[in-house]
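Continuing the batch. This is chain 6 of the set; chains 1 through 5 are on the previous pages. Same settings as before, nothing changed between runs. Recording input and output for traceability.
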Amino acid sequence: MGRIFGVCCLSRFFLWLFLCIGCLPAHAIDASSAANSPLHIKVFGSVDDPMGATVPDAKVELLDANGALVAATTTLLNGQFQLSAAPGDYQLAIIRDGFATVTMPLHLLKASPPAPLLIRLRVAEINQQIEVSSVPGSTSTDPAANKETTTITADDLKSIPVFDNDYISAFSALLDAGDISTGGTTILVDGLEAGRVGVSPSAIQSIKINNDPYAAEFYQPGRGQIQITTKPAADAFHGDFNFTFRDSVFDARYPFSPLGPKPPEQRRIYDGQLTGPLFRSKASSFLFTFKRAEEDLQAVVNATVPVGYLAPGSGYTLTPGTNCPPTVPCEQAQANVAAPTRDTEFTLRAARQISPAHTGYIEYQFQNTSNINEGVGDLTLAEAGTNVSDTESDINIHDDYTISPAKLNQLAVLVELDRAQIANAHQGTRLSVQGAFTGGSAQAHQDKSEYNLRLTDAFSYTHGKQQFKFGINIPHFGRRFLRDESLFGGFYTFSSLTEFQASAPSTYEAQRGQSSFVYHDQEVGVFFQDVIDVTPTLTMTPGIRYDWNNFTRSANNFSPRFSIAKALDNNGGTVIRAGVGIYYDRAGAQPLVDLKRYAQPSLFDVLVTQNPCYPIICPSQIEQQPPNIVRLDPSLRSPVRFNASVSVERRVGKSATATATYYSANTYDAYRSVDINAPFVTCLNPSCDAFTVAPDRPNPAFGRYRQIESSGSARSNSLVLALRGRLGSIFSGTAQYNYAHAIDNTGGINFYPQNQYLPNNEASDSNHDARHRLNVFGTFRQGKLLNLGVAIRMSNGLPYTITTGTDPYGTGFFNARPAGLARNSENNPFFRQIDLRYAYDFKLRRTDKDKSPTVGFSVAAFNVFNSLNASAVSRVITSPTFGHVIAGFPPRRMQLNLHYSF
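Output for chain 6:
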């Protein structure tokens, strides 16, 4: 924590140093130093919503007669704003997600400053908001105003069909899987990177994807992160309460579930938010949000087992199997296994307007979840499931200080405490028969805890035509504890049902020794960028970022970035944008714990590959086995990704924009793992399809020697066509089509090649390579009766690899492919799904409807046409179901929602 304290103090020191230096005269675009000039006139005002509550964080822009931006600012927590300009005629624009843009003429006279303005916003009538920097018809070359950005507002979330209110999953379809880091999708909540959103869906103000993709402020490309803005605490009472309900009696039958009555499933979700003043003070307010999800679900097992493995009355429907091995009578085992989940969340925020220029809040977040029989389904029997519980408590602090109209400092700190447990649903030895079933036990027992600090501090300064921004990000500075008792009961792998019937496993793996570990996860980044308005129609944005983490400890992770935008006319009808940038990957926490457990093994993981005893392992075989270890390649460095793009934006009509964007990405030093102590392979032909394998490992002191390397590569090219805004008289939304091709020679940090001595022979289509993708989100709205939300998702199926189910290389990976067959040579079937949601709201008062409480309901259908979308195809050639679809995405499901707001 001493390092963090030092970093924060250093950040504040440079902030105040910059303030002193920045006291030089300037002609700031937002009336910074010009505010006190006798040639400029001050404009004061405040912004309210229809209920009279103040609206913070609204954009306030002043435009001249040509539509050029003269001054800009944002409203404070109390809704007030201040800017200045020379005498003349202007247009004042107020822009806020979820509200209709307000424009008004403003005539500034030197001898008569205008009276303070009171501006009241109205709820937007168009569901899909397009991020703009000024009123329609004005030029917008701001990098954060690129029309490739998708913005979903709070109003959209009430209309667009979102299953179980899980908007993160719903809108992740708009991300690019190649831009997502090894550690997963980045979620930014109110500017701070977070592991979860922390507030209920009803407290979400907006969601943005691909906002300012080359900003040095972010370590990940725009298409690899989701930015979420939460609703602020207000100084007048507001509330939203929602009840979401699903029941399987309204759903279609899952095609892989057993015959007979549909299994009972029901889901109940309660969520809401309440905000208002604290202690009857306009300067203090609170926000309370909650969510309770009770989900009584069923996991569908569809496995193949030998006759007699499952006894009658065990809860499985057993039918004669097809394509069974000649010597093994087998049967299809299907079952609906109860898999209930519970989720309780609440957040309490206290906000304070410390001064007209200084606001802040402190927030407590709590979440408790439990999942029973997690991991059960498809080929995994109920006995191999786990029971998972997780409790997280967070303290979140935000501080925004407007030092002057040209200087703003924004600080956010999040302290997290997380405790989780994974317990085996059944005790025993884990059994896995390739392509047939997994049973026995999960052998996954773990207890985890995490103490983590996240911090971001950003300072913005406007000077003339330049807008500087620099700061520090600390997404992880954590201490983690793990008690790992997984595989203490052992794990047998069989290559086929024939091998299982003969009691002849291919491998046995087990762990023993120390089980408790403490490790640290540390990541720090600093950035600087400069938005330069070269002319009213040309903007350039250079920036640079530096990242450090305690996994690779690379010292040269500098990421220069540059973007440029040129408007071809003064009315902003057509804008051309281009950008290039470098991005470094993060590994996440899992490799860190692997190193802690196995680098100097105190937790001994042993692998028996030669005739392991069964059903009880022989003690001598365990004692004679050397430990498996994990080490880093001495030359390991953070993978580096070069992104470049060029796009054309064209306004279509008054309220829509069409974009065409070409993306190119090349990744070098990509992560992968290699067993450098694998038995030697002697190739018998140039392609190494025929080979011999040495009986023993080269170094007898070790078993599997996993070396984590940064020696892979990847590249992709894509064309994205999009149409956003109001299309026609009744539809507004986003339609986005992607054509892309991605290839690589690694599947990530946990990927092993089939031949450990030829890792570069794995070049093929990437795991996420989907050539064609179409996503449509929007709403048809006309009058009071038509409010129909729609979501359309279509894409090529993702690729998968056919394997033999055997371990001819003696590594225990069972990833060998048939001779001549490349990785990811096959594709899942085409995916298509259409979702609809009809919503109707009515006011409880006939008069003064802007202030009237609202009651509404909606009914949504997901996968309306009940399309069979495969999620898994049997890919092991020794499996009786080889080549057949064995699992699918859910069939048609119905969802009801009631809500009340005031």
